[in-house]
């Protein structure tokens, strides 16, 4: 029984562990928010952040500098608490959601590539064409709108116009300049 108490005894203290968890959550959240979203895939940024931080906090509690499971539990609870709070605040306060989550970016409009959208997200024409091909698009004329969504996924709204009237998505040449 003494060994069990020793395992859960706090080594660093609850306040310190909450401050550490809060600091790491916000530092990583800010870094991920400004670093872009192309590689996020289908996980939302906050989801990925929570998974990484929870795994790291739990790992440190089991084998890192802290041998206390109690310290790890406090850090994990702090991280999950921030995630829960931000999800709720973003739902009830839409302007806050616009600050916390990236907005979708239009990359193709009416069959024409929007260079400003590609530049904003650092996406090459080749990468855009690859994503369109993965969505089954053979020609830009098939695309009414294509977006890079907040999650990092590409979405395509097909045009009711004809198929194959515009440049092929098989073209790999980057425009010069």
From TrEMBL:
Membrane topology of this protein: Multi-pass membrane protein
Database matches in InterPro entries: DUF421, UPF0702_alpha/beta_dom_sf
A GO cellular component entry from the record: plasma membrane
Pfam families named among the record's database cross-references: DUF421
All residue ranges annotated as the YetF C-terminal domain in the record: 96-160
Locations listed in the record: Cell membrane
Assigned keywords, A-Z: Cell membrane, Membrane, Transmembrane, Transmembrane helix
Entry's family note: Belongs to the UPF0702 family.
The protein, known as: YetF C-terminal domain-containing protein
Taxonomic lineage: Bacteria, Pseudomonadati, Pseudomonadota, Betaproteobacteria, Burkholderiales
């Amino acid at each position: 029984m003494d060994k069990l108490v020793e395992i859960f005894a706090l080594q660093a203290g609850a306040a310190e562990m909450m401050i550490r968890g809060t600091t790491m959550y916000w530092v990583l959240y800010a870094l991920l928010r400004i670093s872009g979203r192309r590689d996020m895939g289908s996980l939302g940024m906050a989801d990925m952040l929570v998974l990484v931080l929870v795994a790291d906090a739990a790992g440190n509690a089991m084998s890192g500098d802290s041998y206390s499971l109690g310290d790890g539990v406090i850090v994990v609870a702090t991280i999950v608490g921030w995630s829960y709070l931000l999800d709720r605040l973003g739902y009830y306060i839409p302007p806050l959601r616009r600050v916390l989550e990236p907005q979708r970016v239009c990359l193709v409009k009416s069959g024409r590539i929007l260079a400003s959208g590609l530049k904003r997200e650092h996406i090459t024409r080749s990468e855009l064409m690859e994503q369109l091909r993965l969505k089954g698009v053979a020609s830009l004329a098939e695309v009414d709108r294509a977006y890079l969504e907040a999650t990092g996924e590409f979405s395509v709204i097909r045009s009711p116009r004809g198929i194959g009237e515009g440049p092929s998505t098989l073209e790999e040449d980057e425009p010069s300049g």
